[in-house]
């Protein structure tokens, strides 16, 4: 599994689409052997786009409702209106029906629904006078689309005129008829034709066919003489019948057919008229008329053959009626269309550029001629390695020699007609791709700029950047080539040696060429990985240990190879199979007797040697994070183990702290305890002074291990745990109509002889994200308490300072009437384990908010309260972060983090509450800028 998750600089991703340079052939040009015209001269390569990761798979576009039809036409006859329209765009799903809505004098009437079989329908209307207009809307599986513009007012229309039968021939139990459409359709499109057989003048069952002009009547009785009529039908009804056809007798009258190929101008042509049934000798004729035409110029009917022969002189399509009469005067006739093609003409496109070593593919096309075609090289030669396919006209292969190559190409059609055209194919030398970097030695996550030069020929297309470190090949992004060069910037994604190369994908040739490799050495910087919590003993014994390593860098942090070193020489190295750590997340390493698995499962759990149960130090499996004294984290940014840059250190032993050390235990504490890093504005505090950044926390408070502790809770984070999303889950005052210090936003309950004073803070949380939050937690990050966090930066509370503890409420919910008259319910939050009450909670203590089924939706709100006991009165402060699952946090820079939505409150506890941090007018401004509740 790849161990790196890559992040690229956004500015490098603004990439224009690059498409292959193609020359389209004329719409009438045909590729030999293909029925449809060829769309392009060579296969089109996919467009190239910028991407920070490997390209996403192509997904089918979701179907949507059909487009609106264009303005329909309408006519009326009596109490019926004929409405006709054209089929609109389907938009990914087949049209299943139509909705036609009438309007009488502009007022909509009841709509009518129809299936999608035809696009002309009769709609019932009132015979009363009025102006009738209509709209049409199409429907598919996605729903009904928009309606068309209204039609013009329906005008009176008539039924269609009678068609004209021009040919009929009998088969064994059927007959084939051809007719000409009526000269006048009455003002409404013909949708069907009705064929009626007659026996001795008596009409038989009619047969209905679509709007065609040749059809076969089936179900006839063998040896029976029939005549036929044809009538046209529109949405408004059926017009008059045609005159009856000549009589034909099934299985007796001559059955006529024509077998002939397409022809080519100036090439000898032969087609045959065949007949079955009837009594010879036969009389053959061609029935010319102004409607159907006659034989193509240059062709004639040989009545002895009977055959159509000659040398056609004019290209076109010629409808012809062949008629035959047998010796007893019975006749049959058939309509056929003879196609004469122009002489073949090769369409010479602008041939694609070739490149030595790159596959080449170019299709030649032909206008005119009669298939099948045969291709050949008449003179000259194609480039070595490239051949011409004699059947389909494909020039393909892999050129081996650069240069300009000329050849005369010949095409020959089925009648021997030929065309010869000269082609010129240029092959350039094989591309050489050179990759360079502006700085081969940088800090981890720094930006570096790569330059790609391609030559010696013309280079167009894109280059894809790959990282080949640690034996894996990972796509980092794709970038355009402009004038034989590409330049782009990325952040170095790993510690130590990063090895890069690019693959050039040409769009003007089919070349795919790899570059040289370049190395960039990346050195870790102190503070990019921070220890946020750790302990080296706990209630479960000396191996009840854990450490959380937080990604404080701007990109995903590779944890593979990170070393956690203890003051007693114990070393834990993260295995190379671990994934990268997302920005703002923590990697949790636990020892053998870790006791907080219900709070957070470890990302790396240490365990004894399975062979003998021993705990080995440095080499092999380890199950300990070392004895009391501190921990430090070292990057794998050098080639020698144990010599990499120190990322962070926290302890009391020299070499295991920055600035001042943590206090030293005089004995091993046996209660739940941690050293926890303080947080400001949603981020870990990193002043470079270990003692100032950390606090010793226990669930009981007081002196533990000989060190004064603050009330707090070990709530470690892991890589899959909830993230801080203060900017997306915003906290505001419960009642915006009163001040932050007034009820119900803040309430102080004075102490009694049997109970300490209480401070209650009430707020409203709103989901400003675009996705539901599946879990939400509040986590105390600052609180005025004994041995606890200092006052927030920028505030100046007056001593003495209050000593607060988070307490569980007496009831789970409360109801309040707000200043605007609304009545709301507030959830009184209870602390999550392992916090306990008494004695209560403090730093790192958490509470889970009760959410509706499916989570808190976008725009959803939730009211909550926190209850604190006032152990001693004075000025107070408090802050908490909002953590959630289901919502991706925005990327927050160090500067931007100071504008976090972390909730912070200040005041005096036990005396008259008062805001201490800033004047009221400044508070309002800060509320707008930082979305904070003060």
What are the main properties of this structure?
7 domains; 934 residues; 2 helices; 70 strands; elongated; Immunoglobulin-like; 41% strand; seven-stranded mixed beta sheet; 2% helix; eight-stranded mixed beta sheet; mainly beta
- The portion of residues assigned to helices is under 10%
Largest sheet: 8 strands, mixed
Given as residue ranges, the uncertain stretches (5+ residues, pLDDT < 50) are: 1-60, 892-900, 911-934
Strands in their spatial order, largest beta sheet = 50-49-46-45-53-56-58-57
Mean pLDDT value? 85
Percentage of β-strand residues: 35-45%
Shape: elongated
Number of helices: 2
SS elements, strand count? 70
Going by helix content, strand content and strand pairing, the class is: mainly beta
Computed over alpha carbons, the radius of gyration is 44 Å
* Total domains: 7
**Alpha-carbon distance between the termini?**
47 Å
Protein name: Fibronectin type-III domain-containing protein
Keywords: Carbohydrate metabolism, Glycosidase, Hydrolase, Polysaccharide degradation, Repeat, Signal
GO cellular component, one term: membrane
Pfam families: fn3, He_PIG
Write structural notes for this entry.
The protein is mostly beta strands. The protein has seven domains: 10-17 and 431-523, Immunoglobulin-like, CATH 2.60.40; 73-151, Sandwich (Immunoglobulin-like), CATH 2.60.40; 164-249, Immunoglobulin-like (Sandwich), CATH 2.60.40; 260-327 and 336-341, Sandwich (Immunoglobulin-like); 349-425, Sandwich (Immunoglobulin-like), CATH 2.60.40.10; 528-716, no CATH class; 723-930, no CATH class. It is 2% helix and 41% strand. It contains two helices and 70 strands. The chain has an eight-stranded mixed β-sheet. Strands 60, 61, 62, 64, 65, 66 and 68 form a seven-stranded mixed β-sheet that branches. The radius of gyration is 44 Å and the shape is elongated.
């Amino acid at each position: 599994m790849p161990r790196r998750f890559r992040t690229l600089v956004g500015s490098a991703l603004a990439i224009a689409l690059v498409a292959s340079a193609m020359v389209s052939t004329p719409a009438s040009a045909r590729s030999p052997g293909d029925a449809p015209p060829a769309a392009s001269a060579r296969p089109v390569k996919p467009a190239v786009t910028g991407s920070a990761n490997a390209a996403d798979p192509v997904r089918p576009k979701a179907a949507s409702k059909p487009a609106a039809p264009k303005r329909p036409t309408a006519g009326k006859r009596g109490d019926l209106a004929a409405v006709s329209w054209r089929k609109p765009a389907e938009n990914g799903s087949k049209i299943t029906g139509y909705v036609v809505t009438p309007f009488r004098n502009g007022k909509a009437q009841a709509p009518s629904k129809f299936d999608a079989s035809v696009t002309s329908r009769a709609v019932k209307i009132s015979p009363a006078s009025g102006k009738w207009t209509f709209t049409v809307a199409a429907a598919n599986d996605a729903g009904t689309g928009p309606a068309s513009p209204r039609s013009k007012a329906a005008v009176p229309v008539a039924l269609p005129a009678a068609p004209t039968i021009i040919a009929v021939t009998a088969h064994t139990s059927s007959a084939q008829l051809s007719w000409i459409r009526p000269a006048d359709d009455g003002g409404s499109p013909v949708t069907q034709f009705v064929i009626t057989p007659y026996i001795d003048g008596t009409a038989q069952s009619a047969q209905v066919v679509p709007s065609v002009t040749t059809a076969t009547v089936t179900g006839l009785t063998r040896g029976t003489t029939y005549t036929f009529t044809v009538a046209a039908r529109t949405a408004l009804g059926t017009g008059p019948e045609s005159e009856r056809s000549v009589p034909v007798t099934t299985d007796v009258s001559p059955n006529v057919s024509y077998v002939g190929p397409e022809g080519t101008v100036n090439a000898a042509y032969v087609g045959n008229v065949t007949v079955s049934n009837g009594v010879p000798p036969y009389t053959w004729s061609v029935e010319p008329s102004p409607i159907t035409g006659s034989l193509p110029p240059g062709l004639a009917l040989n009545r002895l053959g009977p055959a159509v022969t000659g040398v056609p002189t004019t290209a076109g399509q010629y409808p012809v009626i062949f008629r035959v009469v047998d010796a007893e005067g019975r006749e049959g006739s058939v309509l056929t269309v003879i196609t004469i093609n122009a002489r073949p003409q090769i369409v010479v496109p602008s041939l694609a550029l070739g490149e030595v070593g790159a596959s080449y593919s170019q299709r030649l096309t032909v206008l005119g001629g009669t298939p099948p075609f045969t291709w050949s090289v008449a003179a000259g030669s194609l480039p070595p390695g490239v051949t011409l396919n004699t059947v389909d006209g494909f020039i393909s292969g892999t050129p081996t020699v650069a240069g300009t190559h000329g050849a005369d190409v010949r095409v020959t059609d089925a009648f021997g007609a030929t065309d010869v055209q000269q082609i010129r194919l240029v092959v350039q030398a094989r591309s050489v791709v050179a990759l360079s970097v502006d700085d081969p030695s940088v800090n981890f996550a720094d930006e570096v700029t790569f330059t790609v030069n391609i030559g010696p020929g013309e280079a167009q297309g894109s280059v894809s950047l790959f990282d080949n470190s640690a034996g894996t090949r990972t796509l980092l992004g794709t970038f355009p080539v402009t004038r034989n060069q590409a330049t782009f910037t990325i952040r170095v994604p790993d510690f130590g040696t990063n090895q890069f190369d690019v693959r050039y994908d040409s769009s003007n040739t089919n070349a795919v060429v790899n570059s040289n490799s370049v190395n960039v050495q990346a050195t870790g910087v102190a503070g990019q990985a921070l220890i946020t919590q750790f302990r080296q003993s706990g209630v479960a014994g000396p191996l009840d240990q854990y450490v959380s390593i937080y990604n404080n860098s701007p990109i995903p942090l590779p944890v593979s190879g990170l070393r956690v070193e203890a003051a007693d020489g114990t070393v834990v190295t993260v295995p190379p199979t671990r994934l990268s750590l997302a920005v703002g997340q923590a990697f949790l390493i636990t020892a053998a007797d870790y006791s907080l698995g219900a709070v957070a499962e470890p990302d790396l759990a240490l365990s004894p040697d399975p062979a003998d149960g021993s705990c080995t130090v440095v080499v092999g499996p380890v199950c300990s994070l070392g004895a009391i004294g501190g921990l430090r984290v070292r990057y794998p940014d050098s080639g020698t183990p144990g010599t990499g840059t120190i990322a962070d250190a926290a302890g009391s032993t020299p070499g295991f702290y920055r600035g001042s050390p943590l206090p030293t235990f005089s004995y091993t504490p046996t209660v739940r305890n941690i050293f926890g890093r303080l947080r400001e504005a949603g981020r870990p505090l990193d002043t470079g002074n270990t003692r100032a950044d950390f606090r010793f926390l226990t669930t009981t408070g007081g002196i533990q291990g000989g060190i004064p502790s603050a009330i707090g809770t070990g709530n470690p984070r892991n890589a899959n745990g909830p993230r801080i999303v203060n900017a997306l889950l915003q906290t505001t005052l419960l009642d915006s109509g009163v001040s932050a210090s007034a009820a119900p936003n803040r309430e102080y309950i004075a102490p009694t002889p049997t109970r300490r004073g209480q401070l209650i803070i009430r707020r409203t949380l709103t989901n400003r994200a675009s996705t539901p939050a599946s879990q939400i937690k509040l986590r105390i990050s600052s609180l005025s308490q004994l041995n606890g966090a200092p006052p927030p930066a920028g505030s100046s509370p007056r001593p003495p300072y209050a000593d607060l503890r988070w307490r569980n409420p007496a009831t789970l919910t409360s109801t309040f009437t707000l200043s605007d008259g609304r009545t709301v319910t507030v959830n009184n939050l209870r602390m999550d384990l392992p916090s306990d009450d008494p004695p209560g909670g403090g730093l790192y203590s958490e509470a889970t908010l009760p959410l509706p089924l499916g989570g808190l939706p976008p725009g959803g709100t939730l009211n909550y309260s926190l209850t604190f006991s006032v152990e001693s009165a004075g000025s107070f402060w408090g802050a908490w972060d909002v953590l959630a699952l289901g919502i991706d946090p925005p990327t927050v820079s160090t500067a931007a983090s100071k504008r976090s939505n972390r909730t912070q409150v200040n005041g005096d506890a036990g005396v008259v509450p008062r805001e201490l941090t800033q004047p009221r007018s400044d508070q309002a401004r800060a509320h707008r800028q930082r979305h904070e509740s003060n």
